[in-house]
Design a protein that fits this description.
The complex is a heterodimer. In chain A, strands 2, 4, 5, 6, 9, 10 and 11 form a seven-stranded mixed β-sheet that branches. In chain A, strands 1-3-8-7 form a four-stranded antiparallel β-sheet, with no helix packed on it. Chain A is mainly β. In chain A, a hairpin with a 6-residue loop joins strand 4 and strand 5. Chain A is built from no helices and eleven strands. Chain B has no helices and eleven strands. By secondary structure, chain B is mostly beta strands. In chain B, strand 7 and strand 8 form a beta hairpin. The chains are: A mainly beta, B mainly beta. Chains A and B meet through strand 5 and strand 10 of A and strand 5 of B.
Chain lengths: 112, 113
């Protein structure tokens, strides 16, 4: 199974600060069809996860453009350019290139 | 608008069978694949399987021997059934549409005698 390693496990930030989360895969997530099926999700306390980014860098409809995704192959990054209070929660990367699909362990974003 | 809602038993005894229904609205099950994901204290988020828009299924081999996903398109419902439950199966079970674009609120399932 593909293992997704997220770092850091916890991130403390002030409002307005820019932060990045890394997601490294144990194998390339480039599918034979040319797509890379790596998404980013945010789970706020007591809520289901919500989709932020799909296909590495595509912003889901309605998601603020302070969120951005980048990367290729095995290394991926989610960046938040100017953290806002509503961004607090746990961020997960998830891959859908290789079955069984797998999630990272999560990165908790807290207020400093 | 798109809505998904899971309903289930809450408490299940070990060795028994779990049945959860995901009722959807705002779209057709024949146009989207539907996934099941669970969140447990021990393993975090786990992909369990999905049912395609055409009705075929894929399962995580972790659950394959005891998991079944089906649907009733006339009722806009997707079903999860998992047998031989263990205490480690305690967690929140979610249905999600397609590539995780929409999720239900989840149903908490406790496996305990």
């Amino acid at each position: 199974d593909v293992v997704l390693t997220q770092t850091p496990p916890t991130l403390s930030a002030t409002i307005g600060q820019s932060v990045s989360i890394s997601c490294r895969s144990s194998q390339s997530l480039l599918h034979s069809n040319g797509n890379t099926y790596l998404n980013w999700l945010l789970q706020r306390p007591g809520q289901p996860p919500q989709l932020l980014i799909y296909l590495v860098s595509r912003l889901e409809s309605g998601v603020p453009n302070r969120f951005s995704g980048s990367g290729s192959g095995t290394d991926f990054t989610l960046k938040i350019s100017g953290v806002e209070a509503e961004d607090l929660g746990v961020y997960y990367c998830v891959q859908s290139t290789h079955a069984p699909y797998t999630f990272g362990a999560g990165t908790k974003l807290e207020l400093k | 608008q798109v809505q998904l809602k899971e309903t289930g038993p809450g408490l299940v005894q070990p060795t028994q069978t779990l049945s959860i229904t995901c009722t959807v609205s705002g779209f057709s099950l024949t146009s989207y694949y539907m996934q099941w994901v669970r969140q447990t204290p021990g393993k975090g988020l786990e992909w369990m399987g999905f049912i395609r828009s055409g009705g075929s299924t894929e399962y995580n081999s972790e659950f394959k021997s005891r998991l079944s996903i089906s649907r009733d398109t006339s009722k806009n419902q997707v079903f999860l059934k998992m047998n031989s439950l263990k205490t480690e199966d305690t967690g929140v079970y979610y249905c999600a549409r397609g590539n995780y674009g929409h999720w239900g609120q989840g149903v908490m399932v406790t496996v305990s005698s």
